[in-house]
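Quick one: structure for this chain?
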Amino acid sequence: MTACAIEGGSAGAAATADPEAEPEPEEPGELAGADGSGLLPESTAAGQADEENGEAGEAEETEASPTGAAARSDADAPPPPGGFTLTADGAYAARLTAAPGPPGERAWYPERWTLDGPEPYAVPLPLDQPEEPDSEVAPLADGRVLIRRRVADRQMFSLLYPTGPGTGELLLGAVGCAEMTLLPPSPDGRCVYALAAGEDHASVWLVAGGAFGPEEVARIPGRCSGGVWLDRAGRMLALDRQEPGGGPVKAVAVDLGRQGEVTPLLQIAPGSDDRLLLADPDSGLLLLRSDAPGHDRLGWGVLGSCLPVRFPECLRLADVAVTPFAVQPGQMLTPESCAVALRIDGAPGSWVGVWRPAGRQLHQFAAPLGWVPGAGYWSRDGVLRLPYANGATPCGVALLDAPEDVEPSSATGRTGRGEGGGEPSAADAAPVVCKPVPLGQAPLHGAARPD
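Got it. Here's what it folds into:
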């Protein structure tokens, strides 16, 4: 694997799943600290998993499905191939979008969204040649957008920024690697890393923010995937790793400040696959997926805690996939009170769930029309912002206040809201929509941004 640097540049309202009467299932495994100093007991969870499965057979589960408002799609605006990527603070976002044209001849180009002002607005960043659909983009805190392009068996990296009526491009360099994936933007806002996964090892590359172009900063034995930041400094990175000889997948912490030193992070049961999905550096809340209970379940724990991992029954929905995508920041030392946003995917489409560890209730909402599933971020005061784009609104953000958890009624055993079932209703109040202003009228925010 080689790298070269290039200098210079060229031009619905909530419906709540019923909380279970039984306590949440727990697993005896514990969470290591980010430095690997936590306890990692080797005891198995098989006995407790069997007990949980027996209780789950008696528990009443709520099947969720969206209404027509959540399942609608905009045929004129195809989903971007590379998804929608936000900076850690939610100030900027980037995506690939398509110019109008026949479905088989769409010209893809990067687009940057500014989200930290009074109104959101988008800036197109096209170059002379359209981008390939497998390109990836990631925003930086200064408003520039990193793009990864695959050219033959090499990965090319550039920074794009608006300049006058056109788009400026700063070439960063290339990595001699056939496959590479961008990791989530670093919390420091300056750096972007990429993961190159091989057969017997994986490499973490600093592809933006370094002094001399792309640089390999860590090499980890085994097959790696995922990528979750554990701190605000952008030093501790969690990856899901399988040992070179095979075996279960376990999340590990990689210290980029110590030449990629690897320490265990999740060890729930010796033979279980334990993957980290999200982490909140402020509270230490971890969202994970594990088959330690006998089958894949969403669970939560606290970084460095001696308390067992819990697998909430309210997150176990029939015939849908539930995936967390954002955690409320700023809840210091109170991980149980953090609001968590979840993407819920079923046959009718995708919609939004909100859940707190302390509440044990899943609130469900219809998503705004044109929402890129899994895109969103929380404010510290508990407002979920969901970016969306459709034929009527090319750049918008829907605002959703985190609902309060309601205690079950002693008479009915159901919550005060959503008594008629667990489906989000289009007739109820939808998330507040923050519509954009025209780009020419959009104010500039912050300092020294290349707008």
